[in-house]
Amino acid sequence: EPEVTQTPSHQVTQMGQEVILRCVPISNHLYFYWYRQILGQKVEFLVSFYNNEISEKSEIFDDQFSVERPDGSNFTLKIRSTKLEDSAMYFCASRRISNQPQHFGDGTRLSIL
Amino acid sequence: AQSVTQPDIHITVSEGASLELRCNYSYGATPYLFWYVQSPGQGLQLLLKYFSGDTLVQGIKGFEAEFKRSQSSFNLRKPSVHWSDAAEYFCAVGGGGNKLTFGTGTQLKVEL
């Protein structure tokens, strides 16, 4: 069964550094998402992306965050200047059409030192 | 605003016993409802979904859930729990469009 794949599985970065989290959604999916889960807390929506533009974003998704689909397969989340509070598990998700469920990757654990 | 409440943070059941995990939602229109399961260090796996139609939905691994509009609930059930079901379970609500809103999760422990 096709899967959403995320790399790396664990990223350790110094505070203030830029980080890029990568995702390969399922190939025929059209809607893409990023969520995060701070340790011990619930999964929170960050941003959704469709037709090469952001369709919705949360208040968490400030100017330090950006998303990009640089080619036909990858979907990236960039954090420009990381803060300690950005430490979390970041999940990528995708879905084919609007009335289908989202499929999640295994996540990238981001640790900010 | 949409929201999900999972009132039970931790639940412990004996292997072979029945299970019910509670989920209440708030959503302004007809909701799309989901249950996901997360094993340690893993991603979110979809157990089942409700979009419309029959209010009792069947999922993978022997799980089912019942949508009750009058109670704004979507409780997850399994008649006989296996040790491998130990994990964290998340209920989520979303519309036909975009984001999912998750509950805080219920950690299930299975005693042998």
SSE diagram, text form:
The complex is a heterodimer of chains A (113) and B (112).
Chain A: E1 5-7, E2 10-13, E3 19-24, E4 31-37, E5 43-50, E6 53-57, E7 65-68, E8 75-79, E9 88-95, E10 103-104, E11 108-112
Parallel strand pairs in A: 2-11
Antiparallel strand pairs in A: 1-3, 3-8, 4-5, 4-9, 5-6, 7-8, 9-10, 9-11
Chain B: E1 3-5, E2 10-14, E3 19-21, E4 24-26, E5 32-38, E6 45-50, E7 56-58, E8 64-68, E9 73-78, E10 87-94, E11 101-102, E12 106-111
Parallel strand pairs in B: 2-12
Antiparallel strand pairs in B: 1-4, 3-9, 5-6, 5-10, 7-8, 8-9, 10-11, 10-12
Number of helices of chain B: 0
Derived from helix and strand composition plus strand pairing, the structural class of chain B reads mainly beta
The share of residues in extended strands of chain A comes to: over 45%
Task: Count the beta strands of chain B.
Answer: 12
Tell me the quaternary state: heterodimer
How many strands, which pairing sense, and closed or not: the largest β-sheet of chain A? 7 strands, mixed
Proportion in helices of chain B: under 10%
Strand content of chain B: over 45%
Tell me how many strands of chain A there are: 11
Order of helices and strands of chain B: EEEEEEEEEEEE
List keywords for this structure.
heterodimer, A: 113 residues, mainly beta, 7-stranded mixed beta sheet, 4-stranded antiparallel beta sheet, 0% helix, globular, B: 112 residues, 6-stranded mixed beta sheet
What does this structure look like?
The complex is a heterodimer of chains A (about 110) and B (about 110). Chain A starts with a strand and ends with a strand. With about 110 residues, chain A is mostly beta strands. Chain A has no helices and eleven strands. With about 110 residues, chain B is mainly β. In chain B, strands 2, 5, 6, 10, 11 and 12 form a six-stranded mixed beta sheet that branches. A four-stranded antiparallel beta sheet of chain B has the order 3-9-8-7, with no helix packed on it. In chain B, strands 1-4 form a two-stranded antiparallel sheet. Chains A and B meet through strand 4, strand 5 and strand 10 of A and strand 5, strand 6 and strand 11 of B.
